[in-house]
Amino acid sequence: MIDTNQETKLPYYQFSKTDFFWPVPGFHTITSQFGKRRAPTSGASSFHSGIDIAATEGSNIYSITSGKIIFTGFKGAGGCTITMESNNITISYCHVSPNYIVDTNQIVRVGELIGNVGPRFLYGIPNNPYSYQGKPTNGATTGAHLHLTIKKDGQAVNPLDFF
Ligand SMILES: [Zn+2]
User: Fold this and answer.
1) pTM here?
2) What pLDDT does residue 37 have?
3) What separation in Å is there between the alpha carbon of 2 and the centre of ligand 1?
4) Buried-most residue among 1, 2, 116, 136 (CB within 10 A)?
5) Domain 25-162 is in which class?
């Protein structure tokens, strides 16, 4: 139970599950679960740090909780990534559109539109090591989807525990 008089930051486990908003409404198929897996494409990790949610390119992505944007940019296997922090958790939305609609240090509210699902193929990223049949990709990805990572105190945890 949350003590509303408490001014210190609450760890995430004191939030109710209903405090979190599903990032891509209408899309609920998990194509890759959190944890150990066989890497689906070259450069993808055999430990999956988050979940993959099948979603069509251009779909809206909403903030799962309230917090502050701390990063937008191309980041390794995650491709175009938006990262936010909220108390002791950080949330990364990966393989998003490079047309960012939020900025670093921007405060966002739960359920706020923060981006769009990106394309599989992405041109114009300098030194992008990820490609498929010679075409540069939006990180290590086999198709448009949202990869969602949640870290608690720096440690990746299963995002499905939040919904
Ligand atoms: Zn993934």
Assistant:
1) 0.87
2) 75
3) 32
4) 116
5) mainly beta
